[in-house]
Design goal:
Elements lengths: L8 H26 L6 E5 L4 E6 L2 E15 L4 E4 L15 H10 L8 E3 L2 H14 L4 E7 L2 E12 L9
Antiparallel strand pairs: 1-2, 2-3, 3-4, 3-7, 4-5, 6-7
Length: 166
């Protein structure tokens, strides 16, 4: 049984504050730099851990996804992606780094496979994970009874398709 009672909460609060600021600025930069506002569509896949954005049917940006974790709304629990054996390996990326960071620094939430869903704690876990993973941004998707939380990495303008010959 893990000891869930001993950790320096002020250290955790400092890490969360820094991670929140980092996530806020990176998210804003990602949206502004890549034009991810307005009439933008997206397609994503856990099987190949990719996300693409398009406008008017033309893909303009691609990125890599790392699943951070998920919330079961009916069970009211959070499950880290590293603790979910049903996920495709591609979407796990380097999520194990988050668990190891928590173990090394005595931050209990990060190495627990799951915990009771508390929106504030989930938000803290997400931003700290994004910071540990050096993510460009965060993204969430709701599906049926679940909220899926991802880090976005390696954003690249989409390659232009073949040009017509004249």
């Amino acid at each position: 049984m893990e000891d869930r009672s001993q950790h320096d909460h002020s250290d955790w609060e400092g890490v969360v504050l820094a991670a929140r600021e980092r996530a806020r600025s990176r998210q804003a930069l990602m949206i502004e730099r890549h034009g991810l506002s307005g009439d933008v569509q997206y397609h994503w896949s856990m099987d190949d851990a990719r996300i693409t954005w398009s406008r008017g049917g033309k893909t303009f940006l691609t990125g890599r996804l790392t699943m951070i974790g998920s919330v079961s709304l009916s069970r009211r629990t959070w499950l880290w992606a590293w603790a979910n054996p049903s996920l495709p390996s591609a979407v796990l990326g380097d999520i194990g780094q988050v668990r190891r960071y928590g173990e090394a620094n005595g931050f209990p939430v990060l190495p627990w496979p799951s915990f009771d869903h508390d929106p504030g704690l989930v938000a803290e876990a997400r931003v700290v994970a994004a910071s540990v993973l050096d993510a460009d941004g965060l993204w969430a998707e709701s599906a049926d009874d679940a909220q899926l939380h991802f880090a976005i990495h390696d954003l690249e303008p989409a390659a232009e398709g073949p040009r017509p010959t004249t």
